[in-house]
Each structure stands twice: as structure tokens, then as C-alpha cells.
């Protein structure tokens, strides 16, 4: 699996933005990716040094449209902690 297939998108929430000061970044990742693949992909894409990777599996929520019901898709979320001497990841490009 290539690095761009492992990391899907950054998660932009109020809680994840508060963790940026501690060099903790949250990403949606492929549901089949392992911690080692996530670590290698982040180091390759952003050219940083990863200290720790925490992973969560999130089930889909139950949704209804009239009398029909189903589930949203499941996803996998990774919280990546960088080493103190590593540079920061620029999620928003400044011009």
C-alpha cells in the first residue's frame, strides 16, 4: 500500500486543533492500515519523525431516510505524535 493510500485526510475538529501545540496530528486512514504503515506514510509524506501512533476504529452511525435505514461507512482514525525535535506539519498553507 502506498503512502498516499494509507493517509486519506486530516481531521479538522476543535479538539484536534487544540492538540497541534503538542505536535499531535489526527488523520483519517485506510481501514486496513497498520500502525507501522501509518508511521511510515506520515514520515514519508511530511518528512517528519514520528514518536507514537494511536489508532481508533469508528463504527458507522445508524441513519434513516423515511422508512429505509442503513449505516454510514466505518472509518479508522489515527493520532500521530511527533518527536520534540521534529518540525511541525503545515496543514493549512500560509501565503
Automatic annotation (TrEMBL):
Q: What GO biological process term is on the record, naming one?
A: translation
One term of GO molecular function: structural constituent of ribosome
InterPro entries in the record? Nucleotide-bd_a/b_plait_sf (IPR012677), Ribosomal_uL23-like (IPR013025), Ribosomal_uL23/eL15/eS24_sf (IPR012678), Ribosomal_uL23_CS (IPR001014)
GO cellular component annotations, sorted alphabetically? ribonucleoprotein complex; ribosome
A Pfam family of this chain: Ribosomal_L23
Keywords, sorted A to Z: Ribonucleoprotein, Ribosomal protein, RNA-binding, rRNA-binding
Q: Does the keyword Cell membrane apply?
A: no
State the oligomer form and interacting partners: Part of the 50S ribosomal subunit. Contacts protein L29, and trigger factor when it is bound to the ribosome.
What is this protein for, i.e. what is its function? Answer: One of the early assembly proteins it binds 23S rRNA. One of the proteins that surrounds the polypeptide exit tunnel on the outside of the ribosome. Forms the main docking site for trigger factor binding to the ribosome.
Similarity field: Belongs to the universal ribosomal protein uL23 family.
Q: What is this protein called?
A: Large ribosomal subunit protein uL23
